[in-house]
Amino acid sequence: MTSRAEKLLRSMSEDVSALQDYLHSHNLPELSIEEDVPFQFQTNPNFSTRRDSAIKACRELIALLSGSLGTLVNQTPHAIANTQAVCKFNIASNLTEDSDVTTYNELARRCRLPETEIRRIVRALIPSHVFREYSDGRVAHTAASKLLAVDPIMREWIDLSVTEMIPAVLKFPDAMEMWPGSEEPNRTGYSLAHDTQDMAFAHMAKFPGRSERFMAAMKLFSRAPENSPRYLVENYPWAAIGRGGVIVDIGGSSGEYSIPILQTFTNLQVIIQDLPEVIGKFDDRELPDNIKDRVSFTVHDFFTKQPVQGADVYLLRWILHDWSDTYAINILRALIPALHLKSKILINEHILPLPGEAPVPQEMALRTFDTSMRAFTNGKEREVSDWEDLIARADNRLKIEKIETPEGSALGIIVVGWEPSKEV
Predict the structure, then answer these.
(1) Where is the O-methyltransferase C-terminal domain (predicted)?
(2) Secondary structure E strands in 170-259
(3) Helices then strands (H, E): number in the chain?
(4) CB 313 within 8 A of CB 247
(5) Nearest CA to 332 among 351, 306, 366?
């Protein structure tokens, strides 16, 4: 039996062949990203009909390959605004009250909204493969709309994107113009979008629920397979540290990444450090019994001198990308007084590929992260040369011993050693 994906591929192949024949018959070059087909030929029905058919099939195939999560995360601003309305008015969850198919009239009754509003919102999302509509006018779920109905973290991410991130991203060129070359975390697109002199995290903390929403939304990325802690567990020589070895998880929140290391390597212990408002949310009652005596939570600001001397590993996972080079260097320098010869700084962050080095979807996602961090805090995702420069500027006694992205992982592993014999 031919699958939907195979039918789409066949349709696209036929359309593209027809387009190429059309171009050849008019002595035009083949389709190219370097040069457009002249407008008078684009508008010809023999070209535009086939082109539109190929684009439609291509977009549906992308949705099939991306799955529900990818479909929702990669929406246009207009589509995500309609998706926020779906979340705010419980449109997706009301569709699953007794079945996955219903009329617009019934859905409007459940949502307590005018039918015209429900129809506009849902139909705006159908081209993005969020909802579908039968020929008799009934509306039904797709995998993406069903995810909105059942997953509160997905809804938190949508809300965060619309209210915090997208306004900031749209304002980052204005911030560049207002504060040329600034690396300050409170001179950003977020600052302008939210009319604040505070940096993003401090500003959100002033409003009940906003910091909590941010942390909940970030769990969406943590649970993605490519962000699994197993890559950190499997790609560092933890067993070689020896019994009683100490890992300091800096800015570690609940220990989402360091605790799995303990569960695999029973000879180690972890000190999780974070700010008081974060550490106060966690205690050992939430830990598995077999690791409780090897985990501690401690208040620490990573811009201040590191209090734990001579740990085997100082782990910085998804910390430095929040900060510009100026502040990332300060975070690294705050570790130096605590380092011993055996100590390693283990950085678990994105390593941006050069153009063409990674699959296009992965590169697009990483560049989107980079733009988001720039708009949010003047942070950045970094290429290999950026990491090398950052470590060298922090202190010439720090040496990168390993820098790689394990196969299948979205996050790279950067191991930094300490050579105190070098002159500063």
Answers:
(1) 245-394
(2) 245-250
(3) 19, 12
(4) yes
(5) 306
Structure tokens at 157: 């991410």
Q: What are the structural domains, with CATH classification, of the chain?
A: 4-150 (1.10.10.10), 153-221 (no CATH), 224-418 (3.40.50.150)
pLDDT in tens, 98-142: 677 899 999 999 999 999 999 999 999 999 999 999 999 999 999
* Pairing relationship of beta strands 313-317 and 344-349 according to DSSP bridges: parallel
Quick one: DSSP state of residue 130?
S
The rounded distance, in Å, linking the Cα atoms of 193 and 224 is 29
Arithmetic mean of pLDDT, 395-408: 96
Distance CA 394, CA 350 (A): 19
Helix (H, G, I), strand (E, B) or coil at 168: helix
Cα angle vertex 139, ends 2, 157, to 5°? 90
DSSP string, 31-84: P-SSSPPPHHHHTSHHHHHHHHHHHHHHHHHHHHHHHHHHHHHT--HHHHHHHH
d(CA 322, CA 135): 48
Looking at residue 361, its amino acid is P
Write out pLDDT tens, residues 195-214. 999 999 999 999 998 988 88
Across 96-111, b (16+ Cβ under 10 Å) vs e yields eeeeeebebebbbebb
* 97 has pLDDT over 70: no
Are 171 and 375 in contact, with CB atoms under 8 Å apart?
Answer: yes
Instruction: List, by residue number, the catalytic residues.
Output: 321
Confidence band, pLDDT 50/70/90 cuts, at residue 372? very high
* Burial letters 310-325, b for 16+ CB under 10 A, else e: ebbbbbbbbbbbbbbb
Q: Strand pairing partners for 383?
A: 352
Helix, strand, or coil (residue 317): strand
Give the mean model confidence (pLDDT) for residues 13-25: 96
Using an 8 Å Cβ cutoff, are 387 and 325 in contact?
no
